[in-house]
């Protein structure tokens, strides 16, 4: 193992980021109608021959690849080729967008009114817009925004229209089609609708992939989709889905285009519209079905203040550059292009690595607001049993200390330096006043809601507030996760030998690779990055053989171990639950583990209310399946086979990693 950090030349403090401009400022001082009806002349892809949406559909239906699949399906199903072709046309009709500038203008006018009411500012990095404009002219472009709110894709189209850029065609889930009027308006503003899963539907996959590939090959319009596949209810980045990314890379890999530009976009909300909705979903309260009437019922949010939004358009990433020395494209010359083929292991590995790199690029350009750091402090103080809350001046000092630490770790922090810390903290607490209570100079989370009847209802009421705060804290986890893994490894290792600490780090990183964006095969790089950050900030001294904690490093190390504690306890409790089960159906897992956790939260043997999050529980189960402690039995739909010896061993190992709570499980 290397004795010196290889990341020293990538000091996050030296990372140059663009400045922002508030795009709402001009909207507040000019006519909304004139803005919506203005001359719109976007720069287009240099190789584009403009065509209508109907022409695009004709190209798909006449493509060699789709015709090949239609013939295959016809032979397999005894349907005539005309019948299968008719089915393909129906799928495409249901799927395809019908982008119309008149609908876009209507949305531009309406959204301007809404955004000016909801948000103080919408800040965009103009240099990123200029880079995007150049990319759109030179190559087919794929926009990859982070996904934390329903607002994301409306916001993206609004920004591109405002800056006179080509409007994107957006992959959207079928559930939006249930919104009738709004669903059709989304279609006419550039959305195309796809099923959440295709199963083994060969024809559907062929229509979908060919539709996307033809848009990429022709440079028809910037294509937009969410790498994570769905909205993150926790504000943590989700493990990327590879299907669409594989499709958009395919034209380059087959030599049909010179290059494709992938543009990661980071959207940061100071206050999320869906914060309480997400918290309830994570507690098992199902989300309301998307409907137009539901949209109008949500109009009451227009009376709320949601602070600011920051949208950062990252550096365009060239697929050609990514593939250089990674992919041998000659393999695609062996089979005619129109014959579908499964991606090789080499291609799957390449796409997977690229996806992780792109999600990390999204994370690095997320703008963190002061409330994110305050949520860290308030949650930790609540877990430590500070029932009377935290003195305001003490909270301010803790948040300012955390601000300095996060900046040293390379956080993109929006904390006004020209304003006293006390005013910054007061402003953040005011914006999020639904989650906090301030009384007699002390601040605490607003856990006493006053309408619960039973202890369980009271607990779930508190959990909504806790999980809402957790969603803000989670926005900064990518900054701290590698140092936190190292801190927990140091705390639990039997000695200060570097190799032993690396082994502990590797174990923890493996356990949590479903929970955080940790690139496959990068354990050593992550360890060295963590060592470098803790070394640079004076927390550790590291030599060839040993890792030593400095005198001033104890406070930092204590904070970093606390970052991982809720996840350690969550995974530990899941192991304990499974150890007590006999023959568990997969669909019984979430209700069963939730009931188990509620019981132990009420008796005080579990400390962190946030372990009630179904996201954490699902990630824990996925990790246990990956590690072989749980196995899905083939032939028995949804049945889990439990390796109780391994589960018990993992539970004991995780218990040893909980530095602040030795009696957490006390055999529960």
Automatic annotation (TrEMBL):
Its main location: membrane. GO terms for molecular function: glycerol-3-phosphate O-acyltransferase activity; glycerone-phosphate O-acyltransferase activity. One of its GO terms (cellular component) is peroxisomal membrane. GO terms for biological process: ether lipid biosynthetic process; fatty acid metabolic process; phospholipid biosynthetic process; triglyceride biosynthetic process. It is found in: Membrane. Pathway: Phospholipid metabolism. Residues 141-270 form the Phospholipid/glycerol acyltransferase domain. Keywords: Acyltransferase, Membrane, Transferase. Belongs to the GPAT/DAPAT family. This is Glyceronephosphate O-acyltransferase. It comes from Amphilophus citrinellus (Midas cichlid).
